Amino acid sequence: IVRNATGGVVTSAQIDESNNSADSDIASVYAVTSSNITTVNGMKLLVWTGSTFVLGGTLDVGTSGNTSALHQHGSLIQGNNLIDIEGNYTQSGGTFTGSSGGSDMSVNAHFMVAEGTTFIAPSGNLYVGCNANCSVGSDFTQSGSFIHNSGTGYFQPTYSSTMDIYTNSGSYYNIHFRTYGGRLPGYIVTSSMTVLNDVTFGTATYNSIVDGSTINVAGDVYMTDNGWAGCSDPNHGSSSLGTATVRMNGSGSQTISSSAAGCLPNVTIDKASGTLSLSGSVYIGGDWTFTRG
């Protein structure tokens, strides 16, 4: 438990002081080296209500697997420090203030931000899902206020489960549906989401199958899928590429670009101004709808 009894700030340096108190019990919970904190596998790190945890070094919640967790009741300030969570991230209170210097945050299982909280994303990368361990399910549930901070979110479902993506409020800057193969569909977008810059689908090895709602894109769409074979997989029913809709609605010039044989579900063109260009070979599994532009 990270707690200031008066509801104030707790720093990595203070955690290090406790670590140097010669209490043998602490070694079974966490270790600190040069302000870099590592918790023992299977432990839950809890930031107490009213307290603010300010990192002065990296934070590794667990070292492998997916049994550790970070639960935030209070607030957490990342600074320019890497955060790696080998398990769930749950925010039920306070504000998470991500790095403005490009440092990343990785969540190796479920990402859950509750209503009434604020999550300011890292300006680097936010990885959710399949990081070092690809055997546990992962969902992205954002019910609070999300501030993108010009960062990139990576949605990485596991080999054996579908990732549910729920977005309540706020917009995203860059998003990558980064699939590692296996189960179809890879994603269910359960609520409409808005991306202010670019969206990337797939990897050089696997296609991204996306079911659900609408993804509004103001920038470009990139497809790095592995080829036509995955675009027409009959195992996904009538729509091999999913039921979601990619809505191109930016006010400026936009491009749908494929580096190999790009696969998309449904596409709607709804541009009040600007042009849309196609680059490379694009496969549409559902409907191509022109509204304006």
Condensed summary:
With 293 residues, this protein is mainly β. 4% of the residues lie in helices and 43% in strands.
Describe this structure in words.
- There is one protein chain.
- The strands form four sheets. This protein has a twelve-stranded mixed beta sheet. It has an eight-stranded parallel beta sheet with strand order 4-7-10-13-16-19-21-24, with no helix packed on it. A six-stranded parallel beta sheet has the order 1-5-8-11-14-17.
- The chain has 293 residues and is mainly beta.
- The termini are far apart.
- The radius of gyration is 20 Å and the shape is elongated.
- It has two helices and 31 strands.
Features:
293 residues, mainly beta, twelve-stranded mixed beta sheet, 31 strands, elongated
Task: Provide the β-strand percentage band.
Answer: 35-45%
Strand order of the largest sheet: 2-3-6-9-12-15-18-20-23-26-28-30
How many runs of DSSP E, i.e. beta strands? 31
Mean pLDDT: 87
Number of helices: 2
Question: What form results from the Cα inertia axes?
Answer: elongated
Overall structural class, as computed from helix and strand content, comes to: mainly beta
Q: What Rg, in angstroms, do the CA atoms define?
A: 20 Å
Largest sheet: 12 strands, mixed
**Span between termini:** 54 Å
Unreliable residue runs = none
Ordered list of secondary-structure elements with their pairings:
Elements: E1 9-11, H1 12-19, E2 30-33, E3 36-39, E4 44-47, E5 52-54, E6 59-61, E7 68-72, E8 75-77, E9 83-85, E10 87-91, E11 95-97, E12 105-107, E13 111-113, E14 118-120, E15 125-129, E16 140-142, E17 145-147, E18 152-156, E19 163-167, E20 174-177, E21 187-189, E22 193-195, E23 199-201, E24 210-212, E25 214-217, E26 221-223, H2 228-231, E27 245-248, E28 254-264, E29 266-270, E30 276-284, E31 288-292
Parallel strand pairs: 1-5, 3-6, 4-7, 5-8, 6-9, 7-10, 8-11, 9-12, 10-13, 11-14, 12-15, 13-16, 14-17, 15-18, 16-19, 18-20, 19-21, 20-23, 21-24, 22-25, 23-26, 25-27, 26-28, 27-29, 28-30, 29-31
Antiparallel strand pairs: 2-3
